[in-house]
Amino acid sequence: MMSRPAVHPVPIAPMIIGAPRVRMKDIQGMPGTLGSLILRLCQLVFAVISICVMVTTSDFPTVTAFSYLVAAVGLQIIWSLVLAIADVYAILVKRSYRNAAVVSLFAVGDGITSTLTFAAACASAGITVLISNDLDKCKVNHCTRFMSATAMAFLSWFAASPSFFVNFWFLASP
User: Fold this and answer.
1) CB neighbour class for 27 (10 Å; exposed up to 12, middle 13-18, buried from 19)
2) What is the rounded CA–CA span in Å between residue 110 and residue 105?
3) How many CB atoms lie within 10 A of CB 21?
4) What phi and psi, each to the nearest 5 degrees, are found at residue 136?
5) Is the separation of the CB atoms in 142 and 57 below 8 Å?
6) DSSP 12-38
7) First CA to last CA across the chain, in angstroms?
8) d(CA 55, CA 59)
9) Number of neighbours of residue 118 by Cβ within 10 angstroms
10) Are 42 and 162 in contact (CB under 8 A)?
11) Which tens digit of pLDDT belongs to each residue from 31-54?
12) Residue 67, class by beta-carbon neighbours within 10 Å (0-12 exposed, 13-18 middle, 19+ buried)?
């Protein structure tokens, strides 16, 4: 009088040949979506403002951190512009990038550019704090311009980081 385990088979729906397969919906922020385009345009706008403000000062080349900021933000501008064009193309043809090689290229590029932008913004912020607070030489230098260029670089990094994380997560998910 002992009970026995029983397995009840579950009927499986037959595969219909030629039936469309269900795909995962596009996550906003992944390449080829409107969210990705908005993030790219934010990266681009903040980076352009940062480089324009920094270049308008006459003495930015004398500080290595500021030159590094200009170089890193210049790379961010090129990367964001190219991927914004790719996103516009994907939106116009109503396709998203689902190829693992393409998405991994986007993820690696976003990781590199966002890391460079963050490092340059941190270095510039350190020099700006040194000039303004420790040396108290803001009247001689362009502290407000340096601060605003650094802030725009940080905002560009804030817009670049979600792009990296979404692309990386898309690669890691099955």
Assistant:
1) middle
2) 8
3) 5
4) 55, 50
5) yes
6) PPPPPTTPPPP-PPPPBTBTTSHHHHH
7) 46
8) 9
9) 18
10) no
11) 888 999 999 999 999 999 999 999
12) middle
Token pair for residue 148?
């605003």
pTM of the model: 0.80
Q: Buried b / exposed e across 69-91, counting CB within 10 Å, b at 16+?
A: bbebbebbbebbbebbebbeebe
pLDDT class for 70, splitting at 50, 70, 90?
very high
Q: Which pLDDT value is given to residue 99?
A: 81
Q: Provide the token pair at 89.
A: 């193309």
- Residue-wise pLDDT for 156-171, tens only, equals 999 999 999 988 888 8
Query: In whole angstroms, what separates CA 61 from the centre of its chain?
Result: 27
The DSSP code for 133 is I
